Request: fold
Amino acid sequence: MAIGADITGPGRPARAWLLPLAGRVEGFVLPVAALLTGFLAFAVFLLFLGKSPVDFYALVYKAGFGTAFSWTNTLSRAAPLLFAALCVAIPARLGLVVIGGEGAIVLGGVMTGGLAAALAGWPALIAMPLLAIMAAVVGGLWIGAVGALRQWRGVNETIASLLMAYIAIALMNHLVEGPLRDPASLNKPSTAPLAETLKVGDLPGWNVHWGLVLGILGCIFAWVLIERTTLGFSARIAGGNVRAAQVQGLPVGKLVIGFTALGGAFAGLAGYFEVSAVHGSANASLASGYGYTGILVAFLARHNPLAIIPVALLLAGFEASSGLVQRRMDLPDATMLVLQGFVFVAILASETFTGRIDLVGWLSKGGRA
Amino acid sequence: MSGEIGLWAVPIAMLGGAIRVSTPFLFVSLGEVITERSGRINLGLEGTLVFGAMAGYALAFMTGSAWIGVLAAAVAGSVFGLVHGLLCSLPKVNDIAIGIALMLLGTGLAFFFGKPFIQPVAPDLPSINLGWWSDLPQVQAALRVNVLFLIGAALALALAWMLRRTRVGLTLRVVGDSSDAARALGIRPARVRILATAFGGALAGIGGAYLSLFYPGSWNEGISSGQGLIAVALVIFARWSPVNCFFAALLFGAAGALGPALQSVGVTSGYYLFYAAPFVLTLVVLIASSSKSGALTGAPRELSITK
Amino acid sequence: MAEFLTRRRFLSTTAGMAGAAALGGLAMPARASGSLTVGFIYVGPRDDYGYNQAHAEAAAVVKAMEGVTVIEEENVAETQDVQQTMESMINFDGATLLFPTSFGYFDPHILKVAPANPDVRFEHCGGLWSEGMPTNTGSYFGYIGMGQYLNGIAAGHATKTKKIGFVAAKPIPQVLLNINSFLLGARSVDPTITCQVIFTGEWSMAVKEAEATNALADAGADVITCHVDGPKVVMETAASRDCFICGYHANQSELAPEKYLTGAEWNWATVYTDMVKKTMAGEPIDNFVRGGLAEGFIKMSPLGPAVSDAARKQFEDTNAKIMAGGYAVISGPMKDNAGNVIAKEGEAFEETDVALESMNYLVEGVIGSTS
Reply:
């Protein structure tokens, strides 16, 4: 299972320097073509239902990207998706499919809400980073445990992470309605509200919180780690072939646990921002499915952390337009879920063309001409 | 006071829960056993289950026959299975990832088309009262067994026999253990896997129809609480044996009934944790039954999750 | 984004016009002057036989009013999602009166969006509006506990096992008041009756609701009601276990007509049409609106065929007393089920008492606990 394996295809006689370039081009063209195919398939679906695809996409554009408000809407939905997608993309470099990021998100949120009460009165300069770090730590431990189970017991990480997400949500509910409940939170059991000084505000001049910027920085960090360090290189080798990596003396075990933990840490940060920038306390609304949309984002981005940024924006734009589509076209709220499903299937199916389009040969000829 | 049975309520409720709640687990895991025995894993069965629940309910409502609903759910499920099987037969396409995508698509389509059917009431599947010998209403209720449960139990035995004794079973096992060996025998592994996945999808669809047509017996967007996913984990737990799937499904049904049953006898605190019992149990069993080398006894060797 | 927000109207107009050019028939619905666009936001599906359906049925009444455009959105999460949905209804549809109907929409979501949209009125169901909160927000709710008390009277007459059951989502004040009222209604018939409660922990989770109902029936309860978002599963399961049922949120009698005793229903049309009329006339709306049976905020389902004459009489007498006002369900001396005194001799909490909205106990006779 080498999901994150190198995407350059089987080499044909060509100039060696063209290979990585062709990989890049293919890595861009193929997903975009697949995306368009998914859109097209969904358009046909709409036609069958007697709805106009032109109207639909025009509305999606308008409500997701067409006005200043649309962008505010889209950007504020994108922040948690960036973190959630990193939780999938980073372990994917090792060929691991972790789909339980939701668990790390809710636990990161509970940690933030619960700890903030204990840190009341601390200077924000110390307390805020401490909260973020602890949220990342709890998320990292949770998903890192998935990696450890995989490494030490051979437990399938996909299923384990998902089961642990259900367990994490139960834990969260137990804590916010039991030991951590603020008695003043009447009809919506929550932890005590964060002190104003500990809340994360909006970007100056925007109605979008700082989590967006941190999420983008996180993507850049992850990209550098994976693409520009020996650690990332080792991970890619291990993702391609564990045995080869072991033969070369790479610390596969540490990589597995480290990368899953890092992914989980990012998901924990998503929980931190949900509590500190959106909800102001931890409660059941933390389990709102960002972790699952993050899976889609990561796969669409082909687990490339930089590509996560535009893809998260695209999907956030879809979600931002969901309301307008409901109101204007009388389509159910699940419409966006169906569209996402079409796109997801198209992207995955397009993997089959990886390396089969002779870009290198074509480019070589183009070079000679 | 008649009907007062004290702490006995817990085991009786768990027995009843095991029978009521286990059927979807049973059907999904039996289907997945066949799929995985052929060397594929289909994580999308959760979406298939939800779509099956919707399609079954809708058709039962429109035709007035619950059995037509079950049939429709099976057909819809096999279509999802076919799509999975066909897509995964393309080179380089990952079966786990396609499963996740189809989970999303199946759920989305079910919610999309299911809107008009949230409110109407569709006919239920019939059940057989096996508790006639008891005076206790609790026991009678626990043993009011749905026909699908009995069919599922019989199917578990039939599939076990099929895998062990028939040509179809042999083909399936050969394909699951080695594509090369299968080809050497003149079998086309891709075709076998596509059919096995379609069969798995059909059973998952029936599992969904049980949810909407019998227990809890109505269609809504919260109808599944991860049954389709847990069932996939159960298959590993059951070591790819249909008969073990039956017992595993019963165990998980019983674990699911634990939370409400404990509350009914006065154990009221920490109910979220009791509700998480099936998930914890699955995880513990998964950890206990896996091994460091990654090789699982009884596992089809072509299966990606055990490689 | 202060500057953007002051330009909001301009932006929405230009966006609307650009949209009109691009989208043809999909442009903003044309609005005559003096007309009103009202937005309803639901946390679940509109036809859930429960909480959301009760609101949606009232929204349909508003829709029929002259000069009113109703826009709706369902399955909106209590996250950024609802903040953006409100903004979207304001920006794209020009909504000036919003009814975000789920409890969790209020704090922090409405409280964040409202100050930025001073021309829009945010009316929230269930919240506790208090002095100091934005003046363009308000909360409304109904004394549905009284409905559960009447349910309890019907249940008290119908039960043979002297044990009734309650499937509850979460141990929060609104739910606890309903559980307590249900039991106290039954105890006004027979003080030996007990009520078993089972919490499912979720507002909408079909299998758990069914399991909880079965567990109640196994424990000997023979009349069952609930407080979850969609009571359909509880009602059907309880009826299949041969229990009588009392409805909640909306009328569920057609699910099991023979078993249905009565039900406590919301009648939000009263509230919504009033608020819409006031808004259109330019009159102010109170920030804190409450009402019960007398005000027409809630109503009872018609009594079912299984209700005895004695039950009917007590039901109707009590109903009349509640309508007259000043009726107190929680009145001393009364203890909670842990033995603590909750009302001293002579102390009484009338339905209008705001203290009831922060209830944190289960009264004596309820089997269950609040944590």
Summary: Residues 1-13 of chain A have pLDDT under 50 and may be disordered. Residues 83-316 of chain A form one domain.
